[in-house]
Amino acid sequence: MIIKKIFNNNAILAKDSDKHEFVVMGCGIAFKRNVGDKVEENLIEKTFILKQKDASEKFKLLLEDIPTEHVSLCYDIIEYAKNILGVELNDYIYVTLTDHISYALKLFDEGLNRPNALIWEIKKFYTKEFEIGLKALEFIESETDKRLPEDEAGNIALHLINAQVNNSSNKVEDITHQTKMLQDILNIVKYTYNITLDEKSLNYGRFITHLRFFFQRLNKNEKIESEDDFLLKQVQVKYKKAYECMQKIEKYLEIELSDEEQLYLTIHIQRVTQR
Asked: Which parts of the sequence belong to the PRD domain (predicted)?
């Protein structure tokens, strides 16, 4: 294995005898070394093998702009997530999550915080990914002495969710089907209320995101069960029209929604139809 490109003292692009490329990291792996030199394999700590060419090229560009310690940190988070979730993640997670966490640390240094508007949904519907996000905050704090807010656990969870969804072998078919369902549901809401929805509003964006998560759960045959229908009964009375609209959507989907799913869908309908 020889050095093809040096990013910094601790990160290089290496090439093996079969001309396969790898991003390799290790303390001092490129110190006083040159392109064409043999890689000191005993110094290798982490190896990135990205099979998707586009993801690999973007990752190389990322290495030129982001501190090596951030890349190494995200590698550990992703490996931890793979072990906990027991699934393969799309190669782009190495690009998107690394870029996100590095920028989140930059904002933290500047005293800025990005609230996550979907935090309650992520906590409820993606508990495993959210727990990994919380663990990631511990990893980050351990390495940087910076404790990022809980919202960032939600953001990390979103990256993990997307990396799993985008791994689907039927991605094109799924997206096509989901897009049609999404449009049909939006039409049900529009015709029930006889209004034009404000597609630029925050509530519209939240509604769309909720539906996309909902479709993912349908694909995985996941159902959210509720231990208490008290809130749903209150919502039925308080948001009667939104609840009736939700029932139309349930009928269109030809499935029986759990109380929890009915509750959140009704609340989203109520929000997206308010001026």
From this structure: 65-170, 173-275
Q: How many helices (H) and strands (E) would you count in the chain?
A: 11, 4
**Average pLDDT for consecutive 10-residue bins of the chain (275 residues)?**
88 84 87 88 87 86 89 94 91 92 94 83 83 97 96 92 63 64 92 91 86 79 64 89 95 89 92 87
Residue ranges making up the domain that contains 84: 51-167
How many residues comprise the chain? Answer: 275
Domains of the chain: total: 3
Nearest to 1 by CA among 12, 19, 16: 16
Q: What is the pTM of this model?
A: 0.68
Which of 135, 167, 199 represents a domain boundary (last residue)? 167
Classified as helix, coil or strand, 186 is helix
The span from the CA of 46 to the CA of 50, in Å, is 13
